[in-house]
Amino acid sequence: MSLSLVQSRALLGLDAAAVTVEVHLANGLPSFTLVGLADVEVKEARERVRSAIQNSGLEFPSNKKIVVNLAPADLPKDSGRFDLPIALGILGASGQIDTAALAGWEFAGELSLSGELRPVRGALAMSLALHGSGVVTQLVLPPESAEEAALVPSAQVYRARHLLDVVQHFLPTTSENRAAEPGEGWARVDSVPCVQAADYLDLADVKGQLGAKRALEIAAAGGHSLLLMGPPGSGKSMLAQRFVGLLPPMTTDEALQSAAVASLGGRFSLASWARRPTCQPHHTASAVALVGGGSPPRPGEISLAHHGVLFLDEFPEFPRAALEALREPLETGTITISRAARRSEFPARFQLIGAMNPCPCGYLGSNQKACRCTPDQVARYQGKLSGPLVDRIDLHVEVPAVTSNELMQTPPGEASAVVQARCMAARERAITRQGKPNQALQGQEIDQFVLLDEAAAKFLNVAATRLGWSARSTHRALKVARTIADLAGAHSTQVTHVAEAMQYRRTLKSA
Prior knowledge:
The protein has 21 helices and 19 strands.
């Protein structure tokens, strides 16, 4: 038969769209034509596939007119993931493998010139999308990619190291070799994720800074965002880098979602399985680097930090467009990237930790050095953070400089494990009461679950009016107060909880 069909998948965001690789061999001038809106990497598959087939000792139909169609034709295809299905399609159309046996199988893999299979980006995302849509199929993937995809429960994944490993499994039934055992390179991969104890940095390393540590505990317990402000060397980065150790361990669903996004970005490794990510982009990062983009769209830092921490050091130094692009994801937990022909949605449920100096020289209000900035320079520097963005950050904390005496003589503080236990207990109270962390409360849920005392409500109303708070600021202060109450084990939110929450909302000179 001169026509064969092989199934594969193309990735558009976290969606895995089905792609049928159609190969037709015909008489005519020898040629190799590839159609179907293929990117440059896919078109280069012609030379890789030709060399891989020949160097594997198989017959390449050089005297035929070869037409490969990647259907549907209007779906963009990129990367070298279609090398293996194209090679199998050519071998099937030339009768070297059984095309009927390919039914129920899907293939993805990049071929080397010798026929070895190389890992592809997004294998876990592809397997997770198949699992979520209820599609039952058997996947054949290269090493490393197969282990990724097998992390999804009930996934049927097979690992192949070489093109010949796949060919031997699908030889025609008339072949004497059909009954032979598959080679060592062919194996079923079972889902046995190796969960290692997380070795996050310990909060006990930070001397002093009791107020900042308390704010970290509240942020971890309720899922709140946090802004740290203080002079250089006061410990802002140390605190932020240890924040992830206060968060509860990842559930299986959270680990799969986070790993799927990392797989799309080519950053996933089995050693990082079930570890909350901490992304720390440089302050020169563009808006596209932060929120994602490109054609086809790729996830940005906020999506790679899904179910983890996004730490933005030197917060005001980021481009204004990049910071403003964080507004919607902070509210919705997703980012939608629209292009002329395609639209992709990526998850972005992260906890933002920002760190900044109070002024350009960094020593405003410091006892160590005198600030040399003018009031206009201070206002202009802090004004780089817009009011709407600052309004979306729940906790604003000053981190004062630590004296040398305090640094040398203060004993280590509480370990991360001790603080994490309190955070997990408080978060469990919130989940039991309302089914979500306090930060995720919206609309009527705030009135229903905050359980504000009458005296606390009156106190908050008077304070919010005098301070000129927006409705968003008031609601966020309420959610922080509810988290403080959960940490204290209180049933209702009282005046003391609201008063502490109000201390964590300072007003910057934002423009």
